[in-house]
Amino acid sequence: MKLRLIAALAAVFLLAACTQAADTTTTVGGTPTTADGGVTTTADTGGTTAPAGETTTTGATEPGDGLLAEVQARGSVRCGINEAVPGFGFLEADGTRSGFDIDFCRAVAAAIFGDPEAVEFVPLTAQQRFTALQAGEIDVLIRNTTYTASRDGGEGATFLSTTFYDGQGMMVRADSGFTVMEDLANTAICVLSGTTTELNLATRFVDIPYEPLTFDENDVLQEAFVAGQCDGWTSDKSQLAGVRSAFPEGPDALVIMEETFSKEPLGPAVRDGDSQWAQIIDWVVNVTIIAEELGLESGNVDTFADTENLEIRRLLGLEIVSDEGTTIFDAGLGLEPGWPADVITAVGNYGEIFNRNVGPDTPLALERELNALWTEGGLIYAPPFR
Ligand SMILES: N[C@@H](CCC(=O)N[C@@H](CS)C(=O)NCC(=O)O)C(=O)O
Q: Does residue 98 surpass a pLDDT of 60?
């Protein structure tokens, strides 16, 4: 009981400290402007012939006057992230950041600036994330965040392409003997506040008596778990795999139970009201998926200069010669044609991002499963780049 009180006080203290830290982040821009009008066609695309030797750009865009212009003027994109979940968003001892979500932040920077390092990472707790997004403290939230109706509708957030299809699970000590949820009757279960996790737990355990212990930060939750205050630790299964991989007593001290009891589609979210910016984030994700479909990788992008595959030529901003003349494809998103080449060079295709951070050869050892390409029986699918 005493330990529980200490943990609760520590959580409150840490939340206050974090709120303060987030408040010091400079707020740029305030109310976002709508950039719907930003897309203008500057080239004749329908059936006209370009004068000999001239290259036109299809669907080209004027620079936007919304968040894109603001980010471009600032010179970096502010990405709201997690720094406590290995594999997804983690601050290493040497000060570097790594993870699946971190790589998508870098991909956005590569798309806009051609430089994956042009990111300002803003660490946020689960509780802080939507407030920070609404307040304009970040440009995009990429922090193991589940896409739900009330968040999309009520948090001033617009959710975009899912990057990771997840589901909630339960982690227990390997020597506990617990194998099914019902074994956890009359135990204490630890959970982070401000998460879908907290809500799903109540739904799944509606007929199982349990004591929920809520925390604001993972590190504090982990201390409570190590101290024996929690019999179960519930979260998105991917997050549990991340935490387990770095557990102080070693991963074998813990098991993640088999049952998955929710849908947790994780992906980026932006503030409502700037469709050009939303489209950019969406297409950065889509491009990593299309790159995997087409076999484009960080190490081979340069070898496609002579490819006859038109989708690859469109992606890489290579000239396309037809009866209508020579064109370079521009999707009209306000980015330089060929921006996908910078994204793929910087972070690789979707499969590379997955494998590098959470795949079978990492401590998390996750299989692709739902996150396999649609052509391999998974849910990872992107609209065509044309
Ligand atoms: N996907 C869920 C859960 C997200 C979440 O916050 N998960 C925990 C995973 S253990 C986390 O990120 N903890 C790190 C922290 O807040 O310090 C949601 O969007 O509500």
A: yes
CB 218 within 8 A of CB 193: no
Rounded to the nearest whole angstrom, what is the distance from the C-alpha of residue 322 to the centroid of ligand 1?
50
Angle formed by the axes of helices 275-294 and 100-113, nearest 10°: 110
Same CATH topology for 41-164+266-376 and 168-262? yes
Say if CB 189 and CB 232 are below 8 A apart.
yes
Q: Domain ranges in the chain?
A: 41-164+266-376, 168-262
Structure tokens belonging to residue 351: 């499969």
Mean pLDDT over 172-197 rounds to 96
Mutate to test the pocket of ligand 1, among 164, 191, 235, 243 (most ligand atoms within 8 A of CB): 235
By most ligand atoms within 8 Å of CB, the mutation choice from 83, 85, 162 for ligand 1 is 85
170: which strand partners? 234
* SS3 assignment, position 148: coil
Q: With 80 as the cut, is the pLDDT of residue 368 above it?
A: yes
The CATH-assigned architecture of domain 168-262 is: 3-Layer(aba) Sandwich (3.40)
Q: How far is CA 83 from CA 66, 98, 101, 125, 289, in A?
A: 29, 9, 10, 9, 25
**pLDDT tens by residue, 120-131:** 999 999 999 999
H-run or E-run covering 212: strand 210-215
Residue with the larger pLDDT of the pair 84 and 26: 84
Pocket of ligand 1 (CB under 6 A): 82, 84-85, 125-126, 144-146, 192, 195-197, 217-218, 235-236, 239, 243, 264, 266
| 41-164+266-376 CATH fold | D-Maltodextrin-Binding Protein; domain 2 (3.40.190)
What lies within 8 Å, CB to CB, of 319 at 6+ separation is 55, 313, 326, 327, 328
pTM above 0.90, yes or no: no
Instruction: Identify which of 83, 101, 144, 146 to mutate to test ligand 1's pocket (most ligand atoms within 8 A of the CB).
Output: 144
What contacts 89, CB < 8 A, 6 or more positions away?
81, 82, 83, 97, 99, 100, 101, 102, 142, 143, 144
Helix (H) or strand (E) holding 162: none
Q: In angstroms, rounded to a whole number, what is the distance separating the alpha carbons of residues 252 and 244?
A: 8
Instruction: State both tokens at 224.
Output: 């409570």
